[in-house]
Amino acid sequence: MRYIKSMEARVDYKNSLLVLFLFAITLLFQVTGLKFIWSLENTARIINLLVLFLLIAYSGYNIGKGVYPKNVWTFYLLPGLIIFFGIFFNVTINVFSNFKLISYYGQTLPWLVYLIIPPLLKKRKINTRLLWRYYYYFLLIINILGILEYVLVSHGILSLRLLKTPYGVYLAGYFSILHMLSNGTAYFRYYSCFIEPGTLAMFLLPAISYAFFNKKYFGLLIFLISFYLTFSLGGIISLLMLVAIISFLLLNGKKNNLLYTLFGFFIVTAILLFNFSGSIAEKYKKKDLSAKVREQNISSTITNLPVILMTNPMGLTLATDTESFEQNPLYVGSNFSPITYLEYGGAGAFLGYLLCLTVSFIVALKSIKRNDLSMEEKVVFSSILVLLPFIVQRTTIWESALFGLLFAPSILRVIEKRRITKK
Fold this sequence. Notes:
Elements: H1 17-29, H2 34-37, H3 41-65, H4 70-95, H5 109-122, H6 128-154, E1 161-165, E2 168-172, E3 177-179, H7 197-213, H8 217-230, H9 233-251, H10 257-275, H11 280-287, H12 289-311, H13 322-325, H14 337-367, H15 375-387, H16 401-416
Antiparallel strand pairs: 1-2, 2-3
């Protein structure tokens, strides 16, 4: 039996307990701030450490004994292995001099999940259609509760408590947080249970695509309300991209495809720009400091990249906090994802990450041209293209185990079918 037959998209089997466990802890302990809201930080640390050991053993055993096509090794497994070992080796070297840096091993967790996807698919232990449904309902429920708390707080009905986290000081409800201003009041932007409103906007985009293609219009309405309340500039740009891609997918193969797509894109763009109060340029101007920091990150990357590659090919000396990191003149920051991999994992992790991004982009771009996409593939590939711009803004979906659990299987199927190498 060919390997591809064990990787068919349309399957009717359940997710293994391991997959469900990884999915749950990713949402609770990694991509959201629920561990801070519910005071589960210590529990999260212990569970994440145990999962790290479990995944190292599982991936090592299954990849070592598995037989995978050359395409899978070249375009999928190899980039993931390079990223993992790059970060793992640099963290290990630094841990010997400062044991407090052991928390950096957590940076390898998303890539260990990414690496176990081929054996999970081969053994029929992962059903991504179900996982996407769970993702949709998680975001739906958490945003219904979050919007409810947001309304209650704005009307003075719900009192918030002070919440100190490594990311700053917040005001917390039972299911959501709001940034606390210097005068002790809550910031107007909507955070739900995420650390930043822009991060919430980023994770909402795949859910918006899923809700649209699966005709879940109530959920779509909730997501769009939540999205609007984030007032995220990067989110607005990516949402416009998503509208254009969805228009293309809906009209793919039909006459006057380009004309209809451009017309639809123009109309929706005009509506979005009008409703988001002001032009993109004005919003960018209002970003002021955060925009300057991101611009500085990119310019510093161009300047420091060759120096880091020559003087620190294994990665920079790690620090326990950002303040200590910034004492290193080569440290750029964490807003531009590729340079973060260079800092944490050296040249290997940097190149592996760029290859992973490139493969993701090529697979998505080539796939949306097809007119035989499944509903799941439409969600995955449209989302990948609109999430790529976030690499210059913040930690992205690629730095989360959700990339391995929700996106990587569809990419892997395309790679295995050799569609990535065909013109």
